[in-house]
Amino acid sequence: MVELEVDQDNSCIQIKGKLIQTTVMSAHKIFQNLAQSPRDWKIDFSQVTQVDSCALALLIEWKKTSRNQSSKIKFQHLPKALISIANLSQVEDLILQ
Fold first, then answer.
1. What is the mean pLDDT of residues 87-94?
2. Is residue 96 part of a domain?
3. Which of 94, 20, 96, 84 is nearest to 51 (CA)?
4. What is the structure's pLDDT at 37?
5. 85: which strand partners?
6. Where residue 30 sits, what CATH number does that domain have?
7. Is residue 97 part of a domain?
8. What is the 3 state secondary structure string of the chain?
9. Which residues span the domain enclosing 37?
10. Top mean-pLDDT range of 9-23, 27-41, 46-60
11. Count of domains for the chain
């Protein structure tokens, strides 16, 4: 299970739980609803308990969405496992920007 919580000023999204193959579509749908109004986002991963390569694909998609809307997205407190997957996939720079 995965949850996305938005802070009071609607600029930071806290992700909680597992961000894996069975949960990324749920997280993506929630983000798509939030991202309908372009703004700069901070996404906090400090409470993510498990990731897989699907999580990396999701982050890349979110970067694409924000770029298409001329907004920015910053990922904070990325799990080490996710950074390792990004490094192996040679896209570490993309998610750490």
1. 92
2. no
3. 20
4. 77
5. none
6. 3.30.750.24
7. no
8. CEEEEECCCCCEEEEEEEECCCCHHHHHHHHHHHCCCCCCEEEEEEEEEEECHHHHHHHHHHHHHHHHCCCCEEEECCCHHHHHHHHHCCCHHHHHC
9. 2-91
10. 46-60
11. 1
For residue 72, give Cα distances in angstroms to 40, 51, 75, 81, 90: 5, 23, 10, 24, 21
Alpha carbon distance, N-terminus to C-terminus of the chain:
27
Digit-coded pLDDT (tens) for 24-41: 999 999 998 888 877 889
Q: Residue 9: is its pLDDT beyond 80?
A: no
For residues 31 and 64, is the Cβ–Cβ distance under 8 A?
Answer: no
Token pair of 94, please?
């993309």
Q: How many whole angstroms separate alpha carbon 45 and alpha carbon 57?
A: 15
Give me the residue label for tokens 């700069």. 40
